[in-house]
Amino acid sequence: MHQLLLNRDIYDEVMEKRLPEARRFVWIVTADIKDLHLDSGHGFEPLLALLSRLVESGVGVRLIHAKEPGPRFRKHFDDYPELFKSELFDRILCPRVHTKAIIIDGVGAFVGSANLTGAGLGAKHKDSRNFEAGFWFEDREQLAELMAWVDSLYLGEQCGNCRRREYCPDPIDEMN
Questions:
Q1: Is the predicted pLDDT of residue 176 greater than 50, yes or no?
Q2: In the chain, at which residue ranges do the beta strands (DSSP E only) sit?
Q3: Spatial contact of 61 and 102, defined as CB atoms under 8 Å apart
Q4: Residue 136 has pLDDT above 80, yes or no
Q5: Please, how many CA atoms are within 13 Å of residue 31, restricted to the half-sphere of its CB?
Q6: Residue 25 to residue 89: CA distance in whole angstroms
Q7: 3-state DSSP helix/strand/coil % of the chain, to nearest 5
Q8: Most C-beta atoms within 10 A of its C-beta, which of 6, 107, 133, 147?
């Protein structure tokens, strides 16, 4: 199954419907990361609150991003100690990442133009949002290929040959 998602449909389908249903793992890859908020049914809360609840319920979360998060994201991050205490949550910084993808439980993925920001994936008003497009898909072969590629980023397999290494604050392969 492939489903084209445009603008607010990305938020409704991926962030509101599918992400909270994760049971095993969530892998998020984005270039930019800011203080994205989601409708909790009782107002809006940072995405970090949902990620913290997922981790507390045993869901592994990998967040791979290209630059330091915005100041409000960093401030809210400290409000969710589960994220920096749990081995189920991991953040990797790679300045070359420009991909935007969310993989949920290895059964479905969103790939598109939207960064992990309020204007990209958040519940912003239609007149305040970015114009975004992407696909939700559940094809097993494509999922396996995407997951293998994201896993290679996570493991730092490209770090050794990276020609942008001098700009990398924490080369992954040096952690091993």
A1: no
A2: 2-6, 25-30, 37-39, 44-46, 60-65, 89-93, 101-104, 108-112, 133-137
A3: no
A4: yes
A5: 11
A6: 10
A7: 35, 25, 40
A8: 147
